[in-house]
Amino acid sequence: MMMRYPNGSKKRVSRANTAPASSADKYSNRGMTLEEDLNAANIYYLSRNIASIHKKPTPVQIVNVDYPKRSAAVIKEAYFKQASTTDYNGVYKGYHVDFEAKETRNKTSFPLSNIHAHQIAHMEQVIYQRGLSFIIIRFAPLEETYLMESEYIIEYWNNQERGGRKSIPYQTVKDKAYMIPFHFQARLDYLKAVDMVLEKLEEN
After folding, report:
1. At the N or C end, where does the chain have fewer CB atoms within 10 A?
2. Looking at per-residue confidence, does 111 or 9 come out higher?
3. Which domain of life is it from (predicted)?
């Protein structure tokens, strides 16, 4: 299927390799995507009434459909109607939770090119309304995942706009963010890091 992005670029979406992995594979293979890990964690949280957090659907406009049979329709081409804000939102302990999830193959920094201006504006709005806004960053080659509060992302973004560096150093992420370890039940139990953010807010 051909997908069109808001900037006009095209990408063919393969239907291959979409079979779900077994539970044993999920735990032994840390090559799962960040999105898969977060979705699994959110299912775990919801099933135990811990939190209600979901991935935001992106509106899609279908432009070409094939009907090989009356009972089946195959989407041949579609495009995203608008740019998204952030990936996930929901409620946890009475707080509105809103965050973006990003993976990078870079070992030494997190490129700010992974973030867009409209997402920065959205983060600022969430913070203004006293919601919890952050980014979950995975350094894929290092198999390390961090929760970084949006304030730091916004600060680096603004510095970039004034001619500063175009990435956040890995060491800064390690120093300022909260590392999210892997677990057996919720492989990526990121709410443990959110709890530490809440503890800091209560202290202030």
Report:
1. C
2. 111
3. Bacteria
Residue 40 to residue 64: CA distance in whole angstroms: 32
Reading the block at residue 4, the tokens are: 């069109």
Token pair listed for 135 = 């980014």
Q: What is the model's pTM? A: 0.75
Binding residues: 85, 87, 100, 119
Q: Which two tokens stand for residue 180?
A: 């999210």
Q: What is the mean pLDDT of the chain?
A: 82
User: pLDDT of 1-36, one tens digit each?
Assistant: 544 545 455 555 433 333 333 333 333 344 579 999
- Percentages helix, strand, coil for the chain, rounded to the nearest 5? 35, 35, 30
Closest alpha carbon to 137 in 103, 109, 107: 103
Cα separation, 59 vs 53, whole angstroms = 19
* Sequence-distant (≥ 6) Cβ neighbours of residue 73 within 8 angstroms: 65, 66, 67
